[in-house]
Amino acid sequence: MATRHTYGVPRIHTELRRLGRAVNRKRVARLMREHCIQGVTRRKRRSLTRPDKKARPAPDLIGRNFHAEVPGTKLVGDITALPTSEGRLYLACWLDLATREVVGYSMADYYRARLVVDALKMAAGRGRLRPSQR
User: What is the C-alpha to C-alpha distance for residues 98 and 76, in angstroms, rounded to an integer?
Assistant: First the structure.
């Protein structure tokens, strides 16, 4: 298990139990305190989004209805960060609600609107999108 030397009370307690040592979690905590051993405290993760204070929230165009009869009429999108050995990559994708297929995607080492736009352009370029009947 790659831990980067971040063993704290919970992880040490679990490891001792795995090795067959019956030890109370409070004892592990006390012994660590007595020997000035501390687990690494992670810093709070910073937010990737910087909201515009003047911008209005985006309208809910599909009305929380995640079902579509006709392919290409309703899409939903998402962005996720993928950790790699060289840093993070960001994947934006668009999913067709009728077929549940990924119709467009884009991957880059930055987290910007351009990533989402490129994924949507890919979906449109495949020629499967239709206007919805709202």
Answer: 11
Q: What is the pTM of this model?
A: 0.58
CATH (residue range 45-134): 3.30.160
- Encoded amino acid at 96, one letter: D
pLDDT tens-digit map of 47-71: 767 778 888 888 888 888 898 888 9
The model's pLDDT over 97-121, given as tens digits with 9 standing for 90+, comes to: 999 999 999 999 998 889 999 999 9
Cβ atoms < 10 Å from Cβ of 31: 13
Sheet with 87-96, side-by-side order of all strands: 75-84, 87-96, 102-108
Residue extents of the structural domains in the chain: 1-42, 45-134
